Input
Amino acid sequence: DAGVTQSPTHLIKTRGQQVTLRCSPKSGHDTVSWYQQALGQGPQFIFQYYEEEERQRGNFPDRFSGHQFPNYSSELNVNALLLGDSALYLCASSRTGLAGEQYFGPGTRLTVT
Amino acid sequence: GESVGLHLPTLSVQEGDNSIINCAYSNSASDYFIWYKQESGKGPQFIIDIRSNMDKRQGQRVTVLLNKTVKHLSLQIAATQPGDSAVYFCAENRENYGQNFVFGPGTRLSVLP
Output
């Protein structure tokens, strides 16, 4: 049984560009959450998707958007990249209602130059 | 692999000794807490959780203590092993408030041979 997978593993972008990160949840999971983890810090909640809709959002600007597909996979889009967007982006999946049982993927390391 | 937490507080313990990792949480309304372990190149991994109606919970080699009066959480690892070396995060959540977990800054545990 595959766990949470994310792609790509690493990505380098230039300021002002746009990026799309992808996540496939663990089998049986229908809820996907995205976190940003800056170096030396704990993960920060960006938003969560369930039934193809954004259900909850953290304190992130509108430049951060997402999507969930009918197969529960998800994308995170970041527009107009800033140097400060450089971080590890983590995807976590769970079954709705079971908040604690979220499984994290290995993350995508985004570097903005 | 991915390097997490280059400037985190570090706890160094001798192999076989017990480890205690502490965490101060921020929201007195939080009622659900999780400890995560994050190894280099991987996403956070669930260790143990506790709800606010408990003050202690035990797992295999791990114990979590919760002191709501001073908003303090601790993770005790018995007979620490080299495989326990990682960054440890506490995360807090308000039940029925979605899955917006707030992570602490993390502590790096280093197990000495």
